[in-house]
């Protein structure tokens, strides 16, 4: 067996095992961590396909941002695991039926003509960089949609801030800027008083 | 593909609005203490400035492209943009007092308003599937936030969640259709897609499969039956100035989406998408008019009436191609454009009236709130009567000519039964419009509070309503503009 094939099966096996872990482990935090492992293995498989940019983005965005956020939510929500598991056996037949239909459908699609490729695509030359070529078109041909995506992120930011930022009036707090600017005269006032005698 | 430096001057209006949205945001953050009026003034200046830029760039009716071929500058886009500016302008002006009274007047409101307008502008001038989608998302994301802007009100949040979830589903449908088209043609450019479709290059089954998803996505954005579930709840739940905006600018943008995708991209398969639109149009005209009768809330009534009006727009779009002949194309599409634009004008005036009657702590959402309006303000009762007559399609108001143009196109395309059905349903629909007129003139007023409105609002609202009557007497001007826009753009 070629080295690449070995690596593919290794990461494929890890991905499948981790995916099973996501649905089988009891603890939701462990399930989320298993999902992180699935993403890592998929990223490795993408590296094998010479799509290193996608692989890095998957790790950065999904592992670095989405899953961390997800873990936060899971930890904050305090989910009662036992109640989620109620009715597992009674729902099993329906779940199995849906899974069977899905498998049949995927088999039909994958064995059909649409996805049959005449030959595997030629390997890229060793000095070709996926990241560089994406960068080249992203900032030239696709600069307009790229800028639009940036504006959409701005919309999301403005919306999120305007919908969630609240000024609480019942909290007493000190403004550091005001504190720094304070002068001795604001704190202490020397007043001259006539001396008093007993 | 070689990269050319894009001609930024064609997209000057978009760039101006984007920059001004940022200016409003920054001044709103740092100069809040100086002036509360600043955000409003800057937003209105932006809309007027964008209108000037667009007007001065329309002297040349040729179709021009920039950013590769992603941005198209043509008369269709310019006409739609001008009416989108008008909608935003009216929403800001009519809604100003409403916002101040409810303490919603913040810089973010204006930023989101301008960004939503920017999204609509980008969508209207898009010539690429990716840009169409991004423009649509920018517009609707800002609208979701605007619906929820009064965040302590449960009704608003509920409407925003419904709008958001259903809007996300419809975007998903649209994207799924686009990915099919991309898979079949290998291009996101609508010109290339159009050529591939008409030459029959690529798998026709994949084209039709993608087309079905695209039509569903477009129908969602139009809010036509059976994709109308969100319309009444969102119109009812949103703050009235936002409802006013949702009922006008996004409908024009949805029209652009339909025309760019179906006529620009899928003209070769017109015989396939026309029956789909026919089903949607018939269902909307029937259900919209019947459901509107049962409403006691005027915002919900106008929502259902909007559904039936959008059905009419679809009627115009489906009358283009008959038996492979292209003679009808020009009349049909220009009648649909005319209808969309007229509906926007009528919708602005009708929600403007709802806003006029609203005051602090009182929404004027019920038809009963219009009772005896004649006693309180004979002038605005007459204006509301003009709007209702025009919406009902009573001759000789603008709405009549809009319906007339569409029905003429439908009859000459050979669908006489469709025209007959549309007329019957319009007559049934006239009932609920005339009911509003009846309560204004023949019922005793429930409260006799004087109407509070700024003089600008009074002037613009009167002008808006009178336009419906004057343009009804002289519809040739607007019709000629619509016809010219369609003629030069395709």
From TrEMBL, chain A:
Domain of life (superkingdom): Bacteria
Reactions this protein catalyses: a quinone + NADH + 5 H(+)(in) = a quinol + NAD(+) + 4 H(+)(out)
EC numbers on record: 7.1.1.-
Any one GO molecular function term: oxidoreductase activity
Subcellular location field: Cell membrane
UniProt keyword Oxidoreductase, yes or no: yes
Coiled-coil segments on the chain, per record: none
The keyword Cell membrane is annotated on this UniProt entry: yes
Chief localization: membrane
Membrane-crossing residue ranges in chain numbering: 6-25, 32-49, 55-77, 89-110, 148-165
Pfam families reported for this sequence: Oxidored_q3
Keywords: Cell membrane, Membrane, NAD, Oxidoreductase, Quinone, Transmembrane, Transmembrane helix
Topology of this chain in the membrane: Multi-pass membrane protein
PANTHER family referenced in this protein's UniProt entry, alphabetically: NADH-UBIQUINONE OXIDOREDUCTASE CHAIN 6
Protein task: NDH-1 shuttles electrons from NADH, via FMN and iron-sulfur (Fe-S) centers, to quinones in the respiratory chain. Couples the redox reaction to proton translocation (for every two electrons transferred, four hydrogen ions are translocated across the cytoplasmic membrane), and thus conserves the redox energy in a proton gradient.
Family listed: Belongs to the complex I subunit 6 family.
NCBIfam families, per the entry: PRK06638.1-4
Record's protein name: NADH-quinone oxidoreductase subunit J
Native species: Tepidiphilus baoligensis
